[in-house]
Amino acid sequence: MTYSTTEIWFIIVALGVGTFLIRFSFLGMIGARQMSPMTLRLLRYTAVAVIPGLVAPLVLWPAATGGQPDAARLIAAATALAVGLAARNVVAAIFAGAAALYATQYLLG
Amino acid sequence: MSPSSPQQTSFWRGFRAGAPFLIIIGPFAMLFGVLSTEQGLTLTETMAFSVLVIAGASQFAALQLMADNAPALIVVVTSLAVNMRMVMYSAALTPWLGQASVSMRAALSYFLVDQTYAASILEYENRPHLTLSERIAYFMGVMMTVCPLWYLATWVGATMGTAIPPEFALDFAVPITFIAILSPMLRTPAHVVSALVSVTIALALWWMPYSTGLLVASIVAMIAGASVETWMESRKGPRL
After folding, report:
1. Which of A2, A6, A11 best probes binding to B when mutated, by most B CB atoms within 10 angstroms?
2. Cβ distance of A72 and B169 shorter than 8 Å
3. Does residue A94 sit within a domain?
4. pLDDT tens digits for A7-58?
5. A101 to A67, B41, B83, B171: CA distances (angstroms)
6. Which of B145, B74, B47, B134 is nearest to B99 (CA)?
7. Into how many domains does chain A fold?
8. Do the domain assignments include residue A63?
9. What is the pTM of this model?
10. Which of A8, A98, B46, B131 is the most exposed place for a label (fewest CB within 10 A)?
């Protein structure tokens, strides 16, 4: 990480103010007005559209292994996904993924 | 707010509804504190993240993009995209809380996180006759289970952070956490398509500078999800 203190504070404050404005949008400014169905539809997919793209390169090409695919990390990711899908439980998925990561690392030495 | 009985009842109902979140929030915030200080942010900067932003997924996203040295503006824009779903929360709560004073609405907005939204909207729809002050009290009851612990556990994680040895492969805590947050969201075929499009394009455009490939992937994936939903509805015929 090579940011100046000013840049770090810019990121924190801009993200803080921006997030507040997102939350305040309808409650504070727009009021009880209908959004177009298309807008609603696009908003529904924001999180699902951003997070997988952020995660995929981290899973396939982890920085910790110099960008080489790593069996332990692939298995951990698959386990977290499977448990998350089956149990619909965030904490269970995190623990299952971590357990798979440590178990595979241990077994593969 | 006078501490009369109906408000107190609502507050504690909210508090009880939020109690299960305690199990998630504690470890999640601690992890943020640990990773943030491991990455070189100071205790003050780490705390400022959790107090000013108070939105886990976007904080982790910012941290990850900063690890990749993405330009500051890209870090902000991409992390804000993760929070755009909250526009829906804000809109959904407006019919129930829109009559509150501006300063109260600002306070409610600041505390509008996944948990306060999900628990409150359920309560308001189940008990439409609650007064405005009871609704606010319920919201604040849920908030009390989530937000103070978010700050506190961030601080705990940030102060113990650097003591964790590399064998624990903490670099992988962020991907696992994101996958865990994401998988319960994959409720419909449209969500699955959106996620797959996001992965495919992000990997294909990984060569693009400054993590801009991720922005392109996110926009296309959003449109893909919405289009699949539209298409599936048109197959089912018109619906209200």
Report:
1. A11
2. yes
3. yes
4. 999 999 999 999 999 999 989 887 766 777 888 788 888 888 888 998 999 8
5. 17, 26, 29, 12
6. B134
7. 1
8. yes
9. 0.79
10. B131
* Interchain CB contacts (distance < 8 Å): A and B: 284
Domain that holds residue A88: 51-107
Token representation of residue B98? 């829109």
Side chain identity, residue B217: A
Residue A99 within any structural domain of the chain = yes
Given an 8 Å threshold on Cβ–Cβ distance, is A56 in contact with B203? yes
B11–chain A nearest CA distance, Å:
21
Our CA-based measurement puts residue A24 at a distance from the nearest CA of chain B, in whole angstroms, of 5
Q: For residue B39, list chain A residues with Cβ-Cβ distance below 8 A.
A: 1
User: CB-side exposure of B39: number of CA atoms within 13 Å?
Assistant: 25
Say which of B75, B85, B175 has its CB closest to residue A11: B75
- In-domain check, residue A2: no
Interchain pair B52, A13: CB under 8 A: yes
Is the CB of residue B15 less than 8 Å from the CB of residue B142? yes
ipTM of the complex: 0.84
| CB-based contacts of A80, cutoff 8 Å, min separation 6 | A93, A94, A96, A97, A100, B176, B179, B180, B183
pLDDT of residue A72 exceeding 80, the answer is yes
